[in-house]
Amino acid sequence: MPAIRSSFLRRGVAVAAALPLLTLAACGYGSKSTTDNAKEKVAAGSSEIDGLGSVKIGYFGNLTHGTALVARQQGLFQKALGATKADYQIFNAGPSEIEALNSGSIDIGWIGPSPSINGYVKSNGKGLRIIGGSASGGVKLVVNPKKITSLKDVKGKKIATPQLGNTQDVAFLNWIADQGWKVDANTGKGDVSVVRTDNKITPDAYKSGAIDGAWVPEPTASKLVAEGGKVLLDEASLWPDKKFVITNIIVRQAFLKEHPKAVEAVLKASVEANKWINANPDQAKAVANKQLEADSGKALSPKVLDPAWKSIRFTDDPLAATLDTEAKHAVKAGLLEKPDLKGIYDLTILNKVLKAEGANTVDDAGLGAS
């Protein structure tokens, strides 16, 4: 199977190493959350699933990972897992989570499409499977309105993306190419200066004038707006039906094979969380914010939380066709050799859960495991 271009791999590893994690954990990949949530207590009389003492779940401290935030805060993971303890690690970068998955430091994770593709390709199709969807949308191009008043004004400016080759970086590079502009994908130099900047420091970089804007996920986009930025483009407007995968759920293939009941339990919690989020959006955003506060020590202000949450759609559908399109964008940008993604999805357990809930099943766009 074709691999990611070596220059991209070297730079990707270097960038990932440079990105500060929320807190260094013993495993060295992400911060290990130890918040004592009463709703996460193991219910008396419950039993372990598959004889497992724990299931290790990873996610980012982003609103685009709202399914995991809500499921955790509401105790849904622990409820579904019975006496098998739900353990958590919080990540700030896709490569770190993929490394943790490959090492066995986590079993299941919420993550963006580009790291999912990269992780699958790098392992020659043996490392992971995408087992469900989580969120669509929530990505915007926010700019300094004093410097940029129209899309054509982006040319010649300094625009941040979270990381070389990450989901937003690939999307922005593809948009630049569609404008007929040239940028070297690896260096970020060209008709637009693409500045790879950790989401945590992007608002400060914007305030200092180091960047003129950013193509970023929520809540970073709304943080920039709160600092005086203007939304110039919502990425959803570039996609059919305004839907594209921003977060999906992955699992170690060995874990999926050995512990399908545990995977089913986590997916049940995810489906339950999405159903509740969509039925109770205002309450759900408060719950997600509460978990963000528990994880990071700081809640989002309403002027950031409200617009950010409104732009995200939570869905069990992994929107597989859009992941295939995103892979093609990475190939076009020169960051990825043409990949064989056949087998990246296994939606069998998710569709079992959805059928039991009386919900519509979802499609893998022909990229399912045989």
TrEMBL record:
<keyword id="KW-0472">Membrane</keyword>
<feature type="signal peptide">
    <location>
        <begin position="1"/>
        <end position="25"/>
    </location>
</feature>
<dbReference type="InterPro" id="IPR044527">
    <property type="entry name" value="NrtA/CpmA_ABC-bd_dom"/>
</dbReference>
<keyword id="KW-1003">Cell membrane</keyword>
<keyword id="KW-0997">Cell inner membrane</keyword>
<keyword id="KW-0732">Signal</keyword>
<dbReference type="InterPro" id="IPR010067">
    <property type="entry name" value="ABC_SsuA_sub-bd"/>
</dbReference>
<keyword id="KW-0813">Transport</keyword>
<comment type="similarity">
    <text>Belongs to the bacterial solute-binding protein SsuA/TauA family.</text>
</comment>
<protein>
    <submittedName>
        <fullName>Aliphatic sulfonates-binding protein</fullName>
    </submittedName>
</protein>
<dbReference type="Pfam" id="PF13379">
    <property type="entry name" value="NMT1_2"/>
</dbReference>
